[in-house]
Design a protein that fits this description.
Layout: E1 12-15, E2 20-25, E3 41-44, E4 61-63, H1 65-70, E5 75-76, E6 81-84, E7 93-95, E8 103-105, E9 109-114, H2 121-129, H3 131-140, H4 151-155, E10 158-161, H5 164-189
Parallel strand pairs: 3-8
Antiparallel strand pairs: 1-10, 2-9, 3-4, 5-8, 6-7, 6-9
Helix pairs in contact: 2-5
Length: 191
């Protein structure tokens, strides 16, 4: 009789950079002599990311295809995490849905691209949005007049994760619950 494989269930504390393939930030088109446009490629700014972990498309700016190609560093992919890293609303985090792609961002948002072989974007997004963790991040820069987290600080953020399967289970439960709450609130508001 074969023995069942041991499934890892312990949580471990790691630094965020250990589960990412990219941590970067964008560029504002005007800093490189380019402009915003009236329509085109989505340009997601920090004010588009809500404290609830959603992205408000009504607050998008736009850039043309040429500017998008020039700003390769700030290309956003589906399931990237966007984290506000500058200003008074530090630490807002959202998962990018496929409906907003193609898109770019500026230097006020970090782009965190996870290694999906070891990390679930929804679980990590919820972990980073946790109020206690948000307080921790804000305390890192409490002495600054203009709060900012740099990319090194983001990579060194200590996080706790369970094995990937548990992350996926928890991320799905939390995501489904959040959708249910949003649906309920929207239907209640339409009464």
């Amino acid at each position: 009789m074969k023995s069942k494989p041991i499934i890892e269930t312990k949580w471990k504390e790691i630094q965020l950079k250990e589960i990412t393939i990219l941590i970067t930030k964008g560029t504002t088109p005007t800093t490189i002599g380019m402009n915003f446009s009236q329509e085109g490629i989505n340009f997601i700014k920090s004010e588009s990311v809500t404290k609830q972990g959603t992205i408000n498309s009504k607050k998008f700016a736009f850039i043309d295809e040429s500017t998008h190609k020039t700003l390769r560093r700030s290309h956003i992919l589906e399931n990237d995490l966007l984290m506000s890293i500058a200003g008074m609303f530090l630490g807002k985090v959202a998962v990018v849905p496929s409906t907003f792609i193609p898109a770019n961002t500026n230097q006020a948002l970090a782009i965190i691209r996870l290694n999906n072989e070891v990390a679930d974007c929804h679980f990590i997004g919820y972990f980073l949005r946790n109020p206690s963790f948000n307080t921790y991040m804000n305390n890192l820069v409490a002495q600054s007049a203009q709060p900012n987290l740099n990319l090194t600080q983001i990579g060194e953020l200590p996080i706790q994760i369970p094995p990937l399967e548990k992350q996926k289970q928890m991320g799905k439960i939390l995501s489904d619950l959040e959708k249910l709450i949003i649906s309920f609130c929207n239907s209640w508001l339409s009464l």
